[in-house]
Amino acid sequence: MQNGYVMLRYNEVRIVVLSGESARFIADLNPGIIGVAGLGISTLLGLADYYVGSTISLSLFYLIPIALVAWYAGRRYGIATAIYSGLTLYWTNISTGAFGTQILLAHGAMASHLIIYLIVALLVARFRVLLNREREASRIDFLTGALNRRAFYEIANIEIERARRHNRPFTVTYFDLDDFKRVNDQLGHVVGDDVLRHVVTTVIQHLRTIDSIARLGGDEFVILLPEADSDAAHAVVDKMRKLVLEDMQAQNWPITLSIGVLICDQAPLSIDAMMRSADQLMYRVKNEGKNSIAYSNCRELGMEVQAP
């Protein structure tokens, strides 16, 4: 993969799988639609091959729809496109008399092209799976399964832009585990790791599918609640804290939560300013005795917001 392009070699000719805006547009389509489009392209290539005649072979160009479909729609659709392309090429060769009366040669050519097409489809689909796994792994905290800092900032930037476009609220919740160091010192790091996993598991079970939790480092976490106004934020965070504390008590772990909740009725100009404000709210709770929640609003803190 080079600069976002997937490049395949076949007889030293490069086939480029789209990237950028075109790639994002195709990726958003239903796999079935992509598969049908691939069959359509193969059909057009077959017709072009037929009218060009046997003097020029377009067999190489069938790799384009095969690679595109395998990349964006997956292995199953890629295999289907490869088989259809092989049969289409065979039909054009027979129809144009490319092999004359040598039917066995035509069958051998079809088999060889079909094998190559299938190999390309399988390789492209497999490479896409491996790339997606690597990309997801780079976004996940390996210990807890929460998002990592980089992934959270990517999602937060998207949600800020969405909130600005649609003039929708959202909430950021920053929290820290009280006395986590004491648990590590007295009970060991294995128990400390269990504490972190329990917290994330409990929180995820309570969140909506559009919500996100990330581990920023150590025992500090952040939750993004899109389209959550003040009432929704209070309901979600209060319930989340209650469930986590119940789980900590059930495990006999002396852990409580210091939580800062920043509610934005309009999108802030800066994600860094938003995170600093939420962090400050959390430390306010720390300094006032821990084990509590501090709520505030972007406007109350004097943060600049984007015009809708």
Please give a handful of descriptors for the protein shown.
308 residues, alpha+beta, Alpha-Beta Plaits, five-stranded mixed beta sheet, two-stranded antiparallel sheet, 10 helices, 7 strands
Could you describe the 3D structure shown?
By secondary structure, the protein is of the alpha+beta class. It folds into 2 domains: 6-137, no CATH class; 149-297, Reverse transcriptase/Diguanylate cyclase domain (Alpha-Beta Plaits). The chain contains 10 helices and 7 strands. The strands form 2 sheets. It has a 5-stranded mixed β-sheet, sandwiched between helices. A two-stranded antiparallel ribbon has the order 1-2. Strand 4 and strand 5 (220-226) form a beta hairpin. Helix 2 (31-52) packs antiparallel against helix 3. It is elongated and about 90 Å long. The model is unreliable at 1-17 (pLDDT under 50).
